């Protein structure tokens, strides 16, 4: 994951550090240690589960895998309204892939303690699909709140550096996102304000956002108990 608020599922130590910073910034309380330890373990377990699911899908399908998650603080990743926005943005991205002629298959959609995730497999070569994912993050209205990862057929992550692109920028300033996270350059209020502005931008874009979703992803959202054994959902 290249976003300001999330990183690769397998980078557990950095994930723990990032989560600790986010909770401290939001709570501002020194008495949250026990709560943070418990919540941190749940988030790390969710990320490990998601990582294993990605590896399992790649091994089964022998194709590249796209994983979409929310690139916002945990407070918003687990919020129901943001979950709905997330699914509709995923829907727009899915349409983009189909429109560009790529063979794609919806694999799964889960909701965990680290927020929602959508998994889409594709026959397209990993580096080519990564370029499209980066373009989507930057061009779809509201795409900045998405983190779209790619794993190749061997189960290895393909990042921006692998296709000759610089790291994803922070969506508050022009710095690389990793610098802003590690140096804590933005306050919780700054982050919250930016996230809510993006939310309003998405919701106000009626022409694109209110179009009927693709039947499959619509079914995933509306029929939360799952549509088949292969596409079981936990939303």
Verbal overview:
The chain has nine helices and five strands. It is an alpha+beta fold. A hairpin with a 2-residue loop joins strand 2 (104-112) and strand 3 (115-122). The longest helix is centred in the N-terminal third of the chain and has 29 residues, at 33-61. The protein is globular, with a radius of gyration of 17 Å. The model is unreliable at 1-8, 10-29 and 212-235 (pLDDT under 50).
Instruction: Name the poorly predicted regions.
Output: 1-8, 10-29, 212-235
Q: What is the count of DSSP helices, taking H or I runs of 4+ residues?
A: 9
What form results from the Cα inertia axes? globular
N-to-C terminal Cα separation, in Å? Answer: 22 Å
Structural class: alpha+beta
Summarize the helix and strand pattern as letters. Answer: HHEHHEEHEEHHHH
Please outline the major beta sheet. 5 strands, antiparallel
| Strand percentage | 5-15%
Q: On the 0-100 scale, what is the average pLDDT?
A: 79
Précis, in short:
By secondary structure, the chain is an alpha+beta fold. It has nine helices and five strands.
Secondary structure topology:
Blueprint: H1 12-27, H2 33-61, E1 64-70, H3 74-77, H4 80-99, E2 104-112, E3 115-122, H5 126-139, E4 146-151, E5 157-158, H6 177-183, H7 188-204, H8 206-209, H9 215-222
Antiparallel strand pairs: 1-3, 1-4, 2-3, 4-5
Features:
235 residues; 9 helices
